[in-house]
Amino acid sequence: MSFDLQLQGLRALVTGGTKGVGFAVVQRLHEAGAQVMATARSAPSTPTEGVSFVAADLATAAGAADVAQAVLERWGGVDILVNVVGGSSAPGGGFAALDDAQWYRELNQNLMPAVRLDRALLPAMLARGSGVIIHVSSIQRLLPLPESTTAYAAAKAALSTYSKALSKEVTPRGVRVLRVSPGWIETDAAIALAERVATQAGTDYEGGKQIIMRSLGGIPLGRPAKPQEVADLITFLVSPRAGSISGSEHVIDGGTIPTV
Ligand SMILES: NC(=O)c1ccc[n+]([C@@H]2O[C@H](COP(=O)([O-])OP(=O)(O)OC[C@H]3O[C@@H](n4cnc5c(N)ncnc54)[C@H](OP(=O)(O)O)[C@@H]3O)[C@@H](O)[C@H]2O)c1
């Protein structure tokens, strides 16, 4: 028996769609037959045939408005909005290293892109009475690492709470809203970090990974998730197969969160 995800022809916008998790989501949705638009600041090094791309800085209101306009002009709306963009550039040093500019940077990178794009693209979903929105959060909303990710973790917590509120508001009107919270993911950036850690500690790549995993309190599975594994979860959640799932958080962390 085949397991068709029933994504053929659906219109999907994926933010942060050129690297890491976002790139993997773009590939999965495209393979599944969806029409896909990816966005990021720079075009992908190898464009995928059949996937459109819009360049914009989503940390700004103008960038979010440009992306929404491109989507509305091209398609009139989307069936699927995957808010992947996020990350942290905050320095180490705990609370004292975080001035107002750093705090706003983390909020503009992790909370406001989704708030602005949802606000622009939800009206067409509500008018149709269908759609699905994913917010990629992080287990750090529950497990903040105070040395360097206090502001990032707080921004992801805000994103998660916003996502839940939105799901309560719009699920009765046909739009599903979900959170996906990964633990450590072996993206290209993570590989580069593990290599740097390994060099500093005089060990190999696997040794570098072990050091990072220990700093997270350990990963019972013994390895980070692959971007494609996170993309598989998201691809299922946005599909009509997951039509009765809304308002929930889906953790993909190999068991990192130590509590129930
Ligand atoms: N990696 C992890 O271990 C991990 C763990 C938990 C949660 N997460 C979350 O998962 C999501 C994806 O993370 P990732 O590690 O896969 O990301 P990544 O590899 O760093 O890729 C980030 C993507 O977002 C784009 N981007 C970054 N800043 C942008 C901006 N201001 N405007 C528009 N696009 C921007 C990047 O392209 P440009 O640079 O060209 O703009 C790229 O396509 C994030 O929300 C992250 O917080 C990641």
UniProtKB/TrEMBL annotation:
Among the GO biological process terms of this entry, one is: monocarboxylic acid metabolic process
Instruction: Give the EC number.
Output: 1.1.1.100
Keyword check for Oxidoreductase, yes or no.
yes
- Keywords of this protein's UniProt record, alphabetized? Oxidoreductase
The EC class name is: oxidoreductase
Q: Entry's InterPro entries?
A: NAD(P)-bd_dom_sf, Sc_DH/Rdtase_CS, SDR, SDR_fam
The domain of life for this entry's organism is: Bacteria
Q: Which family does it belong to?
A: Belongs to the short-chain dehydrogenases/reductases (SDR) family.
Sorted alphabetically, which PANTHER family does this protein's record hold? 3-OXOACYL-(ACYL-CARRIER-PROTEIN) REDUCTASE, NADPH-DEPENDENT REDUCTASE BACG
**Would you tell me the protein name for this molecule?**
3-oxoacyl-[acyl-carrier-protein] reductase FabG
Source organism per entry reads Enhygromyxa salina
